[in-house]
Amino acid sequence: MNSTSPFASLYAIKRPLCLAIAAILATPLAGCGGGGAGGYTPSAVSQSDRRELPQAFITRASVNYSPYRTSRNESELSREVITPANVLEDLRLIQATGIGTIRLFSSRAFAETVLQVIKDNRLDLKVQLGAYPNPVPNAAAEADNQAELDACIRLANAYKDIVLAVSVGNETMVEWSTHKVDPLVMAGYLRKVRAAISQPVTTNDNWLMWANVNKEVAATVDYAAVHVYPFLDTFYNSTKYDWRQKNAPESGRAKAMIDATLTEAKKQFEDARAGLVKLNLGHLPMVIGETGWAAVDTAGGPTLAFRAHPVNQRMFFEGLQTWVQDGRKDVQGPKAIFYFQAFDEPWKQGDDGWGLFNARREARYVVQALGTCGVTWACEAGNYTLADAVKWVPPTLNPAITAARYTLFANTAVSGEQRATGLRWDPFALTGYRETLGVNSPDGGVHFEISPNPVDFGWGLFHYSGSGVLDNLSNFSGGRLNFQVRSDGYPGKIEVGISTDTEDRDIQEAFLQIGPGDYGYCNNNGWCEVSIPISAFTAANPKLDLRYVNFRFIVADRFSFTGKPLNQTGLPAIRIDGLHWSR
After folding, report:
1. CB of 407 within 8 A of CB of 542?
2. Residues near 29 by beta carbon (within 8 Å), at least 6 away in sequence
3. Burial of 164: CB neighbours in 10 Å, binned 0-12, 13-18, 19+
4. How far apart are CA 228 and CA 338, in angstroms?
5. Is this prediction's pTM over 0.85?
6. Minimal CA–CA distance to 219: which of 298, 293, 284?
7. 36-69 pLDDT, tens per residue?
8. Sequence-distant (≥ 6) Cβ neighbours of residue 179 within 8 angstroms
9. Residues 6+ apart with CB under 8 A from 290
Protein backbone atom coordinates (compact mmCIF):
# COMPACT_ATOMS: atom_id res chain seq x y z
CA MET A 1 0.00 0.00 0.00
CA ASN A 2 3.00 2.30 0.31
CA SER A 3 3.91 4.38 -2.69
CA THR A 4 6.19 7.26 -3.52
CA SER A 5 4.83 10.23 -5.45
CA PRO A 6 7.15 11.56 -8.19
CA PHE A 7 5.93 15.03 -7.27
CA ALA A 8 7.06 14.90 -3.64
CA SER A 9 10.69 15.82 -4.31
CA LEU A 10 9.62 18.45 -6.83
CA TYR A 11 7.45 20.06 -4.14
CA ALA A 12 10.34 20.08 -1.69
CA ILE A 13 12.45 22.02 -4.23
CA LYS A 14 9.68 24.24 -5.58
CA ARG A 15 8.47 25.76 -2.32
CA PRO A 16 11.79 27.25 -1.08
CA LEU A 17 12.35 28.60 -4.59
CA CYS A 18 8.97 30.36 -4.56
CA LEU A 19 9.72 31.84 -1.15
CA ALA A 20 13.04 33.23 -2.38
CA ILE A 21 11.53 34.80 -5.50
CA ALA A 22 8.68 36.28 -3.47
CA ALA A 23 11.06 37.83 -1.01
CA ILE A 24 12.87 39.57 -3.87
CA LEU A 25 9.80 40.77 -5.74
CA ALA A 26 7.63 41.44 -2.68
CA THR A 27 4.52 40.65 -4.76
CA PRO A 28 2.01 37.78 -4.64
CA LEU A 29 2.94 34.82 -6.81
CA ALA A 30 0.00 32.81 -8.07
CA GLY A 31 1.02 29.20 -8.55
CA CYS A 32 3.90 29.02 -6.09
CA GLY A 33 3.40 26.62 -3.23
CA GLY A 34 -0.32 26.16 -3.65
CA GLY A 35 -1.52 28.22 -6.56
CA GLY A 36 -4.05 30.97 -7.04
CA ALA A 37 -5.25 33.07 -4.16
CA GLY A 38 -3.89 30.48 -1.76
CA GLY A 39 -0.22 30.90 -2.73
CA TYR A 40 2.56 32.68 -0.86
CA THR A 41 2.32 36.43 -0.37
CA PRO A 42 4.62 38.70 1.63
CA SER A 43 1.82 39.36 4.09
CA ALA A 44 1.30 35.70 4.82
CA VAL A 45 1.35 34.55 8.41
CA SER A 46 4.78 33.31 9.61
CA GLN A 47 5.90 31.25 6.63
CA SER A 48 9.64 31.84 6.69
CA ASP A 49 10.54 28.92 8.93
CA ARG A 50 8.03 26.24 7.95
CA ARG A 51 9.35 22.73 8.50
CA GLU A 52 8.86 20.37 5.58
CA LEU A 53 7.02 17.11 6.13
CA PRO A 54 9.53 14.24 5.93
CA GLN A 55 9.42 12.12 2.80
CA ALA A 56 8.37 9.07 4.81
CA PHE A 57 5.39 11.00 6.15
CA ILE A 58 4.00 11.70 2.69
CA THR A 59 4.67 8.30 1.10
CA ARG A 60 3.25 5.85 3.66
CA ALA A 61 -0.24 4.68 4.51
CA SER A 62 -1.27 5.90 7.95
CA VAL A 63 -3.62 4.96 10.78
CA ASN A 64 -4.74 6.18 14.21
CA TYR A 65 -3.70 3.75 16.94
CA SER A 66 -4.53 3.14 20.60
CA PRO A 67 -3.74 -0.17 22.32
CA TYR A 68 -6.70 -0.37 24.73
CA ARG A 69 -8.32 -3.82 24.73
CA THR A 70 -10.12 -4.53 27.98
CA SER A 71 -11.39 -1.21 29.38
CA ARG A 72 -15.18 -1.09 29.34
CA ASN A 73 -15.51 2.66 29.87
CA GLU A 74 -13.39 5.78 30.16
CA SER A 75 -12.95 5.45 33.91
CA GLU A 76 -11.12 2.13 33.44
CA LEU A 77 -8.52 3.41 30.97
CA SER A 78 -6.01 4.50 33.59
CA ARG A 79 -6.08 1.04 35.15
CA GLU A 80 -5.54 -0.97 31.99
CA VAL A 81 -2.02 -2.42 31.76
CA ILE A 82 -0.48 -1.84 28.32
CA THR A 83 2.09 -4.60 27.81
CA PRO A 84 4.92 -4.52 25.26
CA ALA A 85 3.84 -7.96 24.04
CA ASN A 86 0.33 -6.75 23.21
CA VAL A 87 1.68 -3.62 21.55
CA LEU A 88 4.09 -5.70 19.46
CA GLU A 89 1.22 -7.92 18.33
CA ASP A 90 -0.77 -4.83 17.35
CA LEU A 91 2.08 -3.22 15.46
CA ARG A 92 2.88 -6.36 13.51
CA LEU A 93 -0.78 -6.59 12.46
CA ILE A 94 -0.71 -2.95 11.38
CA GLN A 95 2.46 -3.56 9.39
CA ALA A 96 0.90 -6.58 7.71
CA THR A 97 -1.74 -4.29 6.15
CA GLY A 98 0.99 -2.22 4.48
CA ILE A 99 0.53 0.74 6.83
CA GLY A 100 3.79 2.46 7.73
CA THR A 101 2.84 5.41 9.97
CA ILE A 102 0.75 5.47 13.13
CA ARG A 103 -0.69 8.39 15.04
CA LEU A 104 -0.59 8.36 18.84
CA PHE A 105 -2.99 10.65 20.68
CA SER A 106 -1.05 11.37 23.86
CA SER A 107 2.45 11.14 25.31
CA ARG A 108 1.99 9.76 28.80
CA ALA A 109 -0.52 6.93 28.77
CA PHE A 110 1.29 4.47 26.50
CA ALA A 111 3.36 6.39 23.96
CA GLU A 112 6.78 5.45 25.34
CA THR A 113 5.83 1.77 25.40
CA VAL A 114 4.87 1.97 21.73
CA LEU A 115 8.02 3.86 20.73
CA GLN A 116 10.27 1.51 22.66
CA VAL A 117 8.62 -1.55 21.09
CA ILE A 118 9.23 -0.06 17.63
CA LYS A 119 12.86 0.62 18.52
CA ASP A 120 13.61 -2.68 20.26
CA ASN A 121 12.10 -4.75 17.46
CA ARG A 122 13.45 -2.58 14.64
CA LEU A 123 10.00 -2.21 13.16
CA ASP A 124 9.70 -0.16 9.99
CA LEU A 125 7.07 2.11 11.49
CA LYS A 126 7.03 5.87 11.90
CA VAL A 127 4.95 7.91 14.34
CA GLN A 128 3.04 11.16 14.53
CA LEU A 129 3.32 11.68 18.27
CA GLY A 130 0.51 13.40 20.12
CA ALA A 131 0.16 15.62 23.15
CA TYR A 132 -3.33 15.70 24.67
CA PRO A 133 -4.04 18.91 26.60
CA ASN A 134 -7.37 19.25 28.36
CA PRO A 135 -9.47 22.28 29.34
CA VAL A 136 -7.84 24.60 31.88
CA PRO A 137 -10.30 25.46 34.65
CA ASN A 138 -7.59 25.82 37.30
CA ALA A 139 -3.86 25.78 38.01
CA ALA A 140 -3.81 22.03 38.57
CA ALA A 141 -5.24 21.41 35.09
CA GLU A 142 -2.65 23.72 33.57
CA ALA A 143 0.14 21.92 35.44
CA ASP A 144 -1.16 18.62 34.09
CA ASN A 145 -1.17 19.99 30.55
CA GLN A 146 2.39 21.21 30.97
CA ALA A 147 3.42 17.75 32.14
CA GLU A 148 1.83 16.29 28.99
CA LEU A 149 3.70 18.77 26.80
CA ASP A 150 6.98 18.03 28.60
CA ALA A 151 6.49 14.30 28.05
CA CYS A 152 5.82 14.91 24.36
CA ILE A 153 8.97 17.00 23.99
CA ARG A 154 11.08 14.39 25.77
CA LEU A 155 9.81 11.54 23.60
CA ALA A 156 10.07 13.49 20.35
CA ASN A 157 13.72 14.20 21.10
CA ALA A 158 14.53 10.72 22.44
CA TYR A 159 13.03 8.92 19.43
CA LYS A 160 13.88 11.32 16.59
CA ASP A 161 14.39 8.54 14.08
CA ILE A 162 10.84 7.25 14.73
CA VAL A 163 8.82 10.40 15.48
CA LEU A 164 8.32 12.20 12.17
CA ALA A 165 5.92 14.87 13.42
CA VAL A 166 4.03 16.01 16.51
CA SER A 167 0.42 17.04 17.01
CA VAL A 168 -0.73 19.00 20.05
CA GLY A 169 -4.45 18.66 20.80
CA ASN A 170 -7.31 16.58 19.45
CA GLU A 171 -10.56 18.34 18.48
CA THR A 172 -10.06 20.91 21.22
CA MET A 173 -11.05 24.06 19.32
CA VAL A 174 -13.97 23.13 17.06
CA GLU A 175 -17.20 24.74 18.23
CA TRP A 176 -18.81 21.47 19.35
CA SER A 177 -15.81 20.21 21.30
CA THR A 178 -16.56 18.82 24.76
CA HIS A 179 -13.00 19.49 25.96
CA LYS A 180 -12.26 22.93 24.62
CA VAL A 181 -8.94 24.67 24.94
CA ASP A 182 -8.84 28.37 24.13
CA PRO A 183 -7.06 28.94 20.78
CA LEU A 184 -4.65 31.43 22.32
CA VAL A 185 -3.75 28.91 25.01
CA MET A 186 -3.36 26.23 22.33
CA ALA A 187 -1.11 28.53 20.30
CA GLY A 188 1.13 28.87 23.35
CA TYR A 189 1.26 25.08 23.74
CA LEU A 190 2.18 24.73 20.07
CA ARG A 191 4.93 27.31 20.36
CA LYS A 192 6.38 25.63 23.43
CA VAL A 193 6.56 22.22 21.78
CA ARG A 194 7.81 23.53 18.46
CA ALA A 195 10.60 25.52 20.12
CA ALA A 196 11.89 22.39 21.88
CA ILE A 197 11.90 19.86 19.01
CA SER A 198 12.99 19.72 15.38
CA GLN A 199 10.00 17.89 13.86
CA PRO A 200 7.05 19.60 12.12
CA VAL A 201 4.19 20.47 14.48
CA THR A 202 0.42 20.66 14.01
CA THR A 203 -2.85 20.35 15.89
CA ASN A 204 -5.50 17.78 14.97
CA ASP A 205 -8.98 19.23 14.66
CA ASN A 206 -12.23 19.06 12.73
CA TRP A 207 -12.45 20.71 9.31
CA LEU A 208 -14.86 23.28 10.75
CA MET A 209 -12.15 24.57 13.07
CA TRP A 210 -9.67 24.84 10.20
CA ALA A 211 -12.27 26.65 8.09
CA ASN A 212 -12.28 29.36 10.77
CA VAL A 213 -8.79 28.82 12.14
CA ASN A 214 -7.40 31.26 14.69
CA LYS A 215 -4.52 33.32 13.28
CA GLU A 216 -2.24 32.57 16.23
CA VAL A 217 -2.71 28.84 15.76
CA ALA A 218 -2.18 29.07 12.01
CA ALA A 219 0.95 31.15 12.57
CA THR A 220 2.58 28.31 14.49
CA VAL A 221 1.76 25.04 12.74
CA ASP A 222 3.86 23.55 9.95
CA TYR A 223 0.95 21.66 8.44
CA ALA A 224 -2.77 21.21 9.04
CA ALA A 225 -4.22 17.91 10.32
CA VAL A 226 -7.89 17.97 9.35
CA HIS A 227 -10.65 15.61 10.53
CA VAL A 228 -13.50 14.83 8.11
CA TYR A 229 -16.36 12.52 9.07
CA PRO A 230 -19.14 13.02 6.51
CA PHE A 231 -20.30 9.47 7.24
CA LEU A 232 -20.91 10.38 10.88
CA ASP A 233 -22.27 13.82 9.98
CA THR A 234 -25.26 12.14 8.38
CA PHE A 235 -26.51 11.24 11.86
CA TYR A 236 -26.27 14.78 13.20
CA ASN A 237 -27.39 16.50 9.99
CA SER A 238 -29.15 14.11 7.64
CA THR A 239 -29.50 16.75 4.90
CA LYS A 240 -25.91 18.00 4.86
CA TYR A 241 -25.36 16.09 1.63
CA ASP A 242 -27.31 13.50 -0.34
CA TRP A 243 -25.97 10.39 1.36
CA ARG A 244 -29.06 8.32 0.58
CA GLN A 245 -28.74 8.57 -3.21
CA LYS A 246 -32.41 7.66 -3.63
CA ASN A 247 -32.31 8.33 -7.36
CA ALA A 248 -29.50 5.87 -7.99
CA PRO A 249 -30.54 2.37 -9.08
CA GLU A 250 -30.65 0.11 -6.05
CA SER A 251 -28.04 -2.17 -7.62
CA GLY A 252 -25.55 0.69 -7.68
CA ARG A 253 -26.77 2.72 -4.72
CA ALA A 254 -24.15 1.55 -2.22
CA LYS A 255 -21.33 2.70 -4.50
CA ALA A 256 -23.16 5.95 -5.20
CA MET A 257 -23.45 6.51 -1.43
CA ILE A 258 -19.71 5.94 -0.96
CA ASP A 259 -18.89 8.23 -3.88
CA ALA A 260 -21.14 10.96 -2.46
CA THR A 261 -19.45 10.64 0.93
CA LEU A 262 -15.99 10.93 -0.62
CA THR A 263 -17.15 14.01 -2.52
CA GLU A 264 -18.37 15.55 0.73
CA ALA A 265 -15.09 14.66 2.46
CA LYS A 266 -13.19 16.47 -0.30
CA LYS A 267 -15.49 19.48 0.03
CA GLN A 268 -14.85 19.65 3.78
CA PHE A 269 -11.12 19.42 3.09
CA GLU A 270 -11.37 22.34 0.66
CA ASP A 271 -13.46 24.31 3.16
CA ALA A 272 -10.63 23.81 5.64
CA ARG A 273 -8.15 25.03 3.06
CA ALA A 274 -10.32 28.10 2.45
CA GLY A 275 -9.81 29.02 6.10
CA LEU A 276 -6.06 28.95 5.53
CA VAL A 277 -6.36 30.89 2.28
CA LYS A 278 -8.01 33.73 4.22
CA LEU A 279 -4.72 34.02 6.11
CA ASN A 280 -2.66 33.74 2.91
CA LEU A 281 -1.72 30.21 3.90
CA GLY A 282 -3.17 28.32 0.97
CA HIS A 283 0.22 26.71 0.40
CA LEU A 284 0.28 25.05 3.83
CA PRO A 285 0.61 21.25 3.55
CA MET A 286 -2.53 19.47 4.72
CA VAL A 287 -3.24 15.92 5.82
CA ILE A 288 -6.43 14.14 6.79
CA GLY A 289 -5.82 13.51 10.48
CA GLU A 290 -8.90 11.33 10.94
CA THR A 291 -11.58 9.85 8.74
CA GLY A 292 -13.20 6.45 8.65
CA TRP A 293 -16.26 4.29 8.28
CA ALA A 294 -17.87 2.16 10.99
CA ALA A 295 -18.22 -1.55 10.30
CA VAL A 296 -20.82 -1.96 13.06
CA ASP A 297 -23.94 0.02 13.89
CA THR A 298 -23.25 -0.12 17.61
CA ALA A 299 -26.22 0.03 19.99
CA GLY A 300 -26.21 3.12 22.18
CA GLY A 301 -24.32 5.28 19.73
CA PRO A 302 -25.18 7.32 16.66
CA THR A 303 -27.67 5.36 14.56
CA LEU A 304 -25.89 4.44 11.34
CA ALA A 305 -28.26 1.95 9.75
CA PHE A 306 -27.91 1.58 5.96
CA ARG A 307 -24.35 2.85 6.29
CA ALA A 308 -22.34 0.87 8.86
CA HIS A 309 -21.20 -2.47 7.45
CA PRO A 310 -17.88 -4.28 6.82
CA VAL A 311 -18.29 -4.06 3.04
CA ASN A 312 -19.12 -0.34 3.06
CA GLN A 313 -16.10 0.20 5.28
CA ARG A 314 -13.89 -1.48 2.70
CA MET A 315 -15.39 0.55 -0.17
CA PHE A 316 -14.70 3.82 1.66
CA PHE A 317 -11.21 2.72 2.69
CA GLU A 318 -10.31 1.90 -0.91
CA GLY A 319 -11.72 5.24 -2.06
CA LEU A 320 -9.43 6.99 0.42
CA GLN A 321 -6.39 5.26 -1.04
CA THR A 322 -7.22 6.67 -4.45
CA TRP A 323 -7.75 10.12 -2.96
CA VAL A 324 -4.42 10.23 -1.17
CA GLN A 325 -2.51 9.04 -4.23
CA ASP A 326 -4.13 11.79 -6.27
CA GLY A 327 -3.59 14.26 -3.42
CA ARG A 328 0.13 13.61 -3.36
CA LYS A 329 0.33 14.54 -7.03
CA ASP A 330 -1.45 17.83 -6.35
CA VAL A 331 0.28 20.48 -4.28
CA GLN A 332 -3.04 21.28 -2.64
CA GLY A 333 -4.17 17.70 -2.06
CA PRO A 334 -3.87 15.68 1.18
CA LYS A 335 -0.32 14.46 1.70
CA ALA A 336 -1.45 11.65 4.00
CA ILE A 337 -4.69 10.17 5.27
CA PHE A 338 -4.69 8.79 8.82
CA TYR A 339 -7.48 6.23 8.84
CA PHE A 340 -9.61 5.99 11.96
CA GLN A 341 -8.82 3.53 13.36
CA ALA A 342 -6.57 0.47 13.72
CA PHE A 343 -8.51 -1.50 16.37
CA ASP A 344 -11.89 -1.39 18.06
CA GLU A 345 -11.82 -0.12 21.63
CA PRO A 346 -14.70 -1.37 23.83
CA TRP A 347 -14.41 1.60 26.23
CA LYS A 348 -15.91 3.79 23.49
CA GLN A 349 -19.16 1.82 23.81
CA GLY A 350 -21.73 3.20 21.38
CA ASP A 351 -19.04 4.91 19.29
CA ASP A 352 -17.00 1.75 18.76
CA GLY A 353 -16.77 -0.47 15.68
CA TRP A 354 -14.54 1.66 13.42
CA GLY A 355 -11.45 -0.57 13.52
CA LEU A 356 -9.64 -2.31 10.68
CA PHE A 357 -9.46 -5.04 13.32
CA ASN A 358 -12.00 -5.80 16.01
CA ALA A 359 -11.09 -5.81 19.71
CA ARG A 360 -10.14 -9.50 19.45
CA ARG A 361 -7.50 -8.50 16.89
CA GLU A 362 -9.38 -10.25 14.10
CA ALA A 363 -8.99 -8.68 10.67
CA ARG A 364 -12.16 -7.18 9.26
CA TYR A 365 -13.24 -7.58 5.65
CA VAL A 366 -11.70 -4.18 4.86
CA VAL A 367 -8.15 -5.61 5.12
CA GLN A 368 -8.61 -9.37 4.83
CA ALA A 369 -7.60 -9.44 1.17
CA LEU A 370 -4.25 -7.86 2.07
CA GLY A 371 -3.22 -11.09 3.79
CA THR A 372 -4.35 -14.65 4.34
CA CYS A 373 -6.92 -15.59 6.96
CA GLY A 374 -5.41 -18.05 9.43
CA VAL A 375 -1.87 -17.20 8.31
CA THR A 376 -1.33 -13.44 8.29
CA TRP A 377 -3.99 -12.94 10.92
CA ALA A 378 -7.19 -14.37 12.32
CA CYS A 379 -10.20 -13.07 10.41
CA GLU A 380 -13.51 -11.84 11.75
CA ALA A 381 -16.40 -14.19 11.05
CA GLY A 382 -18.54 -13.42 8.03
CA ASN A 383 -18.25 -14.15 4.32
CA TYR A 384 -18.89 -11.09 2.18
CA THR A 385 -18.74 -9.85 -1.36
CA LEU A 386 -19.13 -6.29 -2.56
CA ALA A 387 -22.75 -7.13 -3.33
CA ASP A 388 -23.39 -7.34 0.43
CA ALA A 389 -22.88 -3.60 0.94
CA VAL A 390 -25.81 -2.00 2.75
CA LYS A 391 -27.68 0.85 1.17
CA TRP A 392 -30.58 3.17 1.82
CA VAL A 393 -33.92 1.54 1.14
CA PRO A 394 -37.37 2.94 1.93
CA PRO A 395 -39.02 1.63 5.10
CA THR A 396 -41.61 -1.14 4.95
CA LEU A 397 -44.97 0.20 6.02
CA ASN A 398 -46.70 -2.55 7.96
CA PRO A 399 -50.46 -2.60 8.60
CA ALA A 400 -51.47 -0.45 11.54
CA ILE A 401 -52.00 -2.37 14.76
CA THR A 402 -55.71 -2.26 15.51
CA ALA A 403 -55.69 -3.84 18.98
CA ALA A 404 -56.67 -1.59 21.86
CA ARG A 405 -53.51 -2.51 23.72
CA TYR A 406 -49.99 -3.29 22.49
CA THR A 407 -48.19 -5.16 25.28
CA LEU A 408 -44.41 -5.17 25.65
CA PHE A 409 -43.93 -6.82 29.06
CA ALA A 410 -46.69 -8.03 31.37
CA ASN A 411 -47.85 -11.19 33.12
CA THR A 412 -51.59 -10.67 33.10
CA ALA A 413 -53.29 -11.30 29.76
CA VAL A 414 -55.84 -8.68 28.69
CA SER A 415 -58.69 -9.29 26.29
CA GLY A 416 -58.11 -7.72 22.87
CA GLU A 417 -54.43 -7.01 23.38
CA GLN A 418 -51.62 -7.67 20.88
CA ARG A 419 -48.41 -8.98 22.39
CA ALA A 420 -45.18 -7.67 20.89
CA THR A 421 -42.92 -10.35 19.44
CA GLY A 422 -39.33 -10.43 18.22
CA LEU A 423 -38.15 -7.65 20.51
CA ARG A 424 -34.99 -7.52 22.62
CA TRP A 425 -33.55 -5.49 25.46
CA ASP A 426 -30.19 -3.80 24.93
CA PRO A 427 -28.30 -1.63 27.40
CA PHE A 428 -26.08 1.32 26.77
CA ALA A 429 -23.29 1.91 29.25
CA LEU A 430 -23.12 -0.98 31.75
CA THR A 431 -26.80 -1.20 32.61
CA GLY A 432 -27.83 -4.55 34.03
CA TYR A 433 -31.26 -6.12 33.64
CA ARG A 434 -33.12 -9.35 34.41
CA GLU A 435 -36.54 -10.83 34.96
CA THR A 436 -37.07 -11.60 38.63
CA LEU A 437 -39.54 -12.40 41.40
CA GLY A 438 -39.56 -11.26 44.99
CA VAL A 439 -41.02 -7.76 44.95
CA ASN A 440 -44.62 -8.31 43.97
CA SER A 441 -46.04 -5.85 41.48
CA PRO A 442 -49.71 -5.10 40.81
CA ASP A 443 -49.33 -7.14 37.61
CA GLY A 444 -48.07 -10.16 39.58
CA GLY A 445 -45.51 -12.80 38.61
CA VAL A 446 -42.09 -11.77 37.33
CA HIS A 447 -41.12 -8.17 36.79
CA PHE A 448 -38.19 -6.50 35.10
CA GLU A 449 -35.34 -5.34 37.35
CA ILE A 450 -32.88 -2.75 36.05
CA SER A 451 -29.50 -2.17 37.73
CA PRO A 452 -28.26 1.26 36.55
CA ASN A 453 -24.46 0.68 36.92
CA PRO A 454 -23.86 4.12 35.38
CA VAL A 455 -20.76 5.28 33.58
CA ASP A 456 -19.70 8.90 33.69
CA PHE A 457 -22.66 10.23 31.66
CA GLY A 458 -25.38 7.92 32.95
CA TRP A 459 -27.13 4.72 31.88
CA GLY A 460 -29.99 3.44 29.76
CA LEU A 461 -31.92 0.47 28.36
CA PHE A 462 -33.76 0.00 25.05
CA HIS A 463 -36.62 -2.33 24.11
CA TYR A 464 -36.65 -2.67 20.34
CA SER A 465 -36.45 -4.92 17.28
CA GLY A 466 -32.84 -5.89 16.79
CA SER A 467 -33.65 -6.93 13.23
CA GLY A 468 -35.16 -3.56 12.38
CA VAL A 469 -38.81 -4.63 12.14
CA LEU A 470 -41.00 -1.57 12.52
CA ASP A 471 -44.47 -1.57 14.09
CA ASN A 472 -47.14 0.75 12.80
CA LEU A 473 -48.52 2.29 15.99
CA SER A 474 -50.20 5.23 14.28
CA ASN A 475 -53.53 4.25 15.83
CA PHE A 476 -52.00 5.01 19.23
CA SER A 477 -51.27 8.68 18.49
CA GLY A 478 -54.01 9.66 20.92
CA GLY A 479 -53.15 6.91 23.40
CA ARG A 480 -50.68 6.42 26.21
CA LEU A 481 -47.49 4.59 27.19
CA ASN A 482 -48.12 2.80 30.50
CA PHE A 483 -46.04 0.89 33.01
CA GLN A 484 -45.78 0.09 36.68
CA VAL A 485 -42.58 1.23 38.32
CA ARG A 486 -40.90 0.91 41.67
CA SER A 487 -37.80 2.98 42.33
CA ASP A 488 -36.55 2.53 45.86
CA GLY A 489 -35.45 6.05 46.59
CA TYR A 490 -34.01 6.69 43.12
CA PRO A 491 -32.89 10.35 43.25
CA GLY A 492 -34.35 13.02 41.04
CA LYS A 493 -35.62 12.33 37.55
CA ILE A 494 -35.44 9.42 35.16
CA GLU A 495 -36.00 9.49 31.40
CA VAL A 496 -38.59 7.67 29.32
CA GLY A 497 -38.39 7.67 25.56
CA ILE A 498 -39.41 6.18 22.23
CA SER A 499 -37.78 6.24 18.80
CA THR A 500 -39.12 5.92 15.27
CA ASP A 501 -37.86 5.60 11.76
CA THR A 502 -39.14 7.94 9.01
CA GLU A 503 -39.73 7.73 5.29
CA ASP A 504 -36.18 9.06 4.81
CA ARG A 505 -34.84 6.51 7.34
CA ASP A 506 -33.82 9.47 9.46
CA ILE A 507 -34.12 8.08 12.99
CA GLN A 508 -36.03 10.32 15.40
CA GLU A 509 -36.19 10.00 19.18
CA ALA A 510 -38.00 11.74 22.01
CA PHE A 511 -37.10 11.63 25.70
CA LEU A 512 -39.15 12.95 28.60
CA GLN A 513 -37.47 13.71 31.92
CA ILE A 514 -39.93 12.78 34.67
CA GLY A 515 -39.71 13.25 38.41
CA PRO A 516 -41.97 12.31 41.32
CA GLY A 517 -45.54 13.36 40.53
CA ASP A 518 -45.03 13.51 36.75
CA TYR A 519 -47.45 11.22 34.94
CA GLY A 520 -47.88 9.21 38.14
CA TYR A 521 -44.17 8.48 38.68
CA CYS A 522 -42.97 8.01 42.28
CA ASN A 523 -39.75 7.03 44.05
CA ASN A 524 -41.12 6.21 47.51
CA ASN A 525 -40.24 2.51 47.68
CA GLY A 526 -43.65 1.44 46.40
CA TRP A 527 -45.21 0.55 43.08
CA CYS A 528 -46.92 3.29 41.12
CA GLU A 529 -48.68 3.51 37.76
CA VAL A 530 -47.07 5.73 35.11
CA SER A 531 -49.19 6.76 32.15
CA ILE A 532 -47.70 9.13 29.59
CA PRO A 533 -49.72 10.51 26.65
CA ILE A 534 -48.08 9.64 23.33
CA SER A 535 -48.76 13.26 22.43
CA ALA A 536 -46.13 14.27 25.00
CA PHE A 537 -43.50 12.44 22.95
CA THR A 538 -44.66 13.85 19.64
CA ALA A 539 -44.69 17.32 21.18
CA ALA A 540 -41.09 16.79 22.32
CA ASN A 541 -40.16 15.77 18.77
CA PRO A 542 -42.74 16.48 16.05
CA LYS A 543 -40.62 14.50 13.56
CA LEU A 544 -41.56 11.21 15.19
CA ASP A 545 -43.47 8.99 12.77
CA LEU A 546 -45.62 6.49 14.65
CA ARG A 547 -46.04 4.42 11.50
CA TYR A 548 -42.43 3.28 11.90
CA VAL A 549 -41.80 2.65 15.60
CA ASN A 550 -38.64 0.69 16.42
CA PHE A 551 -37.62 1.59 19.98
CA ARG A 552 -40.93 0.87 21.67
CA PHE A 553 -39.63 1.85 25.12
CA ILE A 554 -36.49 3.48 26.48
CA VAL A 555 -35.71 4.03 30.15
CA ALA A 556 -32.57 5.98 30.96
CA ASP A 557 -30.84 8.60 33.03
CA ARG A 558 -28.45 10.78 31.07
CA PHE A 559 -27.17 12.96 33.86
CA SER A 560 -26.73 16.10 31.78
CA PHE A 561 -30.46 15.94 30.93
CA THR A 562 -31.77 15.08 34.40
CA GLY A 563 -29.60 17.54 36.28
CA LYS A 564 -27.40 15.05 38.13
CA PRO A 565 -23.66 15.48 38.46
CA LEU A 566 -21.54 13.46 36.08
CA ASN A 567 -20.01 10.28 37.46
CA GLN A 568 -22.82 9.77 39.97
CA THR A 569 -22.81 6.22 41.32
CA GLY A 570 -24.69 4.15 43.90
CA LEU A 571 -28.05 4.38 42.18
CA PRO A 572 -30.72 1.90 43.34
CA ALA A 573 -32.53 -0.57 41.14
CA ILE A 574 -35.59 0.39 39.11
CA ARG A 575 -38.33 -2.21 38.59
CA ILE A 576 -40.74 -2.23 35.63
CA ASP A 577 -43.88 -4.27 34.97
CA GLY A 578 -47.15 -4.05 33.01
CA LEU A 579 -45.43 -2.24 30.14
CA HIS A 580 -47.81 -1.47 27.27
CA TRP A 581 -49.17 1.08 24.81
CA SER A 582 -52.92 1.77 25.04
CA ARG A 583 -55.30 3.51 22.68
Report:
1. no
2. 18, 21, 22, 39, 40, 41
3. buried
4. 11
5. no
6. 284
7. 333 433 334 455 689 999 999 999 999 999 999 9
8. 134, 135, 171, 172
9. 64, 204, 227, 228, 229, 338, 340
